[in-house]
Specification:
- The protein has two domains: about 5-85, no CATH class; about 90-115.
- It is built from one helix and eight strands, in the order ββββββββα.
- The chain has one helix at about 90-120, and strands at about 5, 15-20, 25-30, 40-45, 50-55, 60-65, 70-75, 80-85.
- A five-stranded antiparallel sheet has the order 1-4-5-6-7, with no helix packed on it. It has a three-stranded antiparallel sheet with strand order 2-3-8, with no helix packed on it.
- The termini are far apart.
- Mean pLDDT is about 75; it is low at about 115-120.
């Protein structure tokens, strides 16, 4: 199942939902959400069979997920909520070392090829 679209129709009134996305994290936050002014965001799959929702409304803070008729509700989250983190850019020291070794190898290879072609005389 791939959640491939978002439904923002449950964010209205004074309710606000914000997403801070960087190369290394995804942070969800809400503001001014309450029963009459929800700040709820839903992610759905193409057939609306599976979903993930997060927000703040009559239930102060929640996340909910479901596949078909099976649903799980979690009301113990707080905002801002760090949804995911990832290692961002690799260590530049090791990247530069690998680049140097690769260039050195290419240089040696070209040097051998050029010396070998001058020896081939007939």
């Amino acid at each position: 199942m791939h959640l491939n679209h978002a439904d923002t129709s449950l964010i209205f009134g004074t309710g606000q939902f914000s997403i801070l996305a960087t190369a290394s994290s995804l942070i969800f936050d809400t503001a001014n959400g309450n029963g009459g002014n929800p700040a709820d965001l839903l992610f759905l799959d193409a057939t609306n069979f599976g979903f993930y929702g997060i927000g703040s409304d009559g239930d102060p803070h929640f996340q909910i997920g479901g596949i078909g008729a099976d649903t799980v509700l979690d009301s113990s989250i707080s905002f801002p909520n760090v949804f995911g983190t990832a290692r961002s850019v690799p260590d530049t020291g090791s990247t530069l070392a690998m680049l140097s070794i690769s260039l050195l190898g290419l240089g040696l290879g070209f040097n051998r090829l050029s010396r070998g072609s001058t020896r081939l005389t007939g």
